[in-house]
Amino acid sequence: MSLQTHSPEFYDALIRRYFDACNAADYDALMSCFTPDAVHYFPSGLPEVPWRGAATISRKWVWCVETLGSQWTVDRILISHDKPEAMIEWTHWKNKIGTALRGAEWYIFEGDRIKEIRAYYASPADKEVRINELVGFDYAARGYHLKSA
């Protein structure tokens, strides 16, 4: 991982700008937050994941606002002091169906944009899969443990 290229305040503002763009269903503003090849990983149980590319990510969030009445709040943010990474907790309010989902995300930045988001949900595990993990995320290549100690 390369050294951080911007201040923690810069990355904090970028995440908040991203969430503002999500809430506004502003496709162009969303696009401006991501590298063209950005990836958004999710736990299993969702269709068509991971979302690959800034255009796909932007389109999907606009759909959530239009279809589910989605709105998001940023509950906590932690920014690395020496790497282009951050961790947040959020709430996804699905206003049209009267539900909410809480979770956390790990962010990787490249230059002045978001390169990767890994979402983790505070929800029941999917009993249909053996290992609940992010769909399409290469755990082995990233040095994660592939079995328990």
Walk me through what this model shows.
InterPro entries: NTF2-like_dom_sf, SnoaL-like. This is Nuclear transport factor 2 family protein. The chain is α+β, with helices and mostly antiparallel strands and about 150 residues long. The protein has a single domain, classed as Roll (Nuclear Transport Factor 2, Chain: A). The chain has three helices and six strands; from the N terminus they run ααββαββββ. The chain has helices at about 10-25, 25-30, 55-70, and strands at about 35-40, 50, 70-80, 85-95, 100-110, 115-120. Strands 2-1-6-5-4-3 form a six-stranded mixed sheet, with helices on one face. A hairpin with a 4-residue loop joins β4 and β5 (about 100-110). It is globular and about 40 Å long. The mean pLDDT is about 90.
The CATH topology, please? Answer: Nuclear Transport Factor 2, Chain: A
Based on secondary structure, the structural category is alpha+beta
Tell me the major beta sheet. 6 strands, mixed
Q: Based on Cα principal axes, name the global outline.
A: globular
Domain SnoaL-like: 15-116
Pfam families: SnoaL_2
Protein name: Nuclear transport factor 2 family protein
InterPro entries: NTF2-like_dom_sf, SnoaL-like
